[in-house]
Amino acid sequence: MADHPVDEKLPAPKMATTGLQHVAAMYAGVVAPPLIVGAAVGLTPAELTFLTGACLFTAGLATFLQTVGVWKIGARLPFVNGVTFAGVAPMTAIVASTDDKKDALPVIFGAVIVAGLLGFLAAPFFSKAVRFFPPVVTGTVITLIGVSLLPVAFGWAQGASPDADDYGSAVNLGLAAITLLVVLLLRRFTRGFVKQIAVLLGMVAGTLIAIPFGVTDFSPVADADLVGFPTPFHFGAPQFQLAAIISLCVVMVVSMTESTADMLALGEIVERPADERTIAAGLRADTLGSALAPLFNGFMCSAFAQNIGLVAMTRIRSRFVVATGGGFLVLMGLCPVAASLIAVVPRPVLGGAGVVLFGSVAASGIQTLAKAGLDKDNNVLVVAVSLAVGVIPISAPEFYHAFPETARIVLDSGISTGCVVAVLLNLVFNHLGRGGREAADVTHPMETGEDLAATTGKAPAAS
Question: What is the pTM of this model?
Fold first, then answer.
């Protein structure tokens, strides 16, 4: 019997080119989190290059775990794993609450290790509890991830530092706008491989355009070694702080929820539906990859949704193609020169690309919410309140100023708080019994009793 397309091994040239395509589609997504967190910590260009390379290296290892698999670890589907966006806001909150910034990364690494190990143990149970994470919850969380990261893109568009004289200058904003325009034009008028790497090409174009303005700095490439290895615990031994651990455990739940949704979607696309066992194995790969990543100075890993779209578009379903992409990620992580290339890209250029990148995450969440049954008032209320709570740290950054610093690590992450609220409200409204009216009878949360009576034939309840 012929192998399923998921298990097909293509000729080496096609394996290499299609594997590179997967790397191109997710490269910007992998390097964005270390750029954000590294900038918050105040790393030098050389340290930022090292952190970026470490994240590429660990993303490759996690992709191997997910695609090739070992024992009961790995969904053995064409999944690319990389640094999850969900952890960025909580990690920057940890950095902000750490007095000595040199301790920030060790604290983050310690929290990731604990969250990863707990997630690994919880994977088989979480796969059974997936019914508590319907589209109304996952869509809300994914939307919050994109919305929470958009301010980062806007900050990048203004420049490298708020203290710089050119911060928010017309040149910086112009470079961001040009980069965004190039990405949009490529997405609109190209197809295939070029369309998939539009963000990467936009960053290259923006960087080249920035050279005459003196904004591009090539020193990171000049100072980088051709070959290097992500030295274990380069930034210090992991530190374990309860508040940080709680915050990233919440992120792990978010990441596992998103990965579960991705596995279900990808299973349908490749015509190998993801059952409970597959989901549990995939979550083990995610969480074990996350737990091991800090050893090599990497962050929490999860499946990359943009690569699912690439599988759907190309119809190339082989998991070994993605494993080849994981090999390229490892090689890039072992070549500091390759990792340093992203450090050359000026912040305004990253800002223009980030608008598309982070906005696409929010759009993915909205697409999920479109399937969430928002014609029912219970679901509308879950989304409305969860989104409102989730945007508090963005719209009112000092809202929780009177709370203890340890509590603010969790509260200042809109993703974490929004996720908790969405899960709890979904349980209350959709699982623990309904009130006097069935959710299916209601078409709008502000619907009056008279409107309801008119549409259902039932008399309005007495107030």
Answer: 0.69
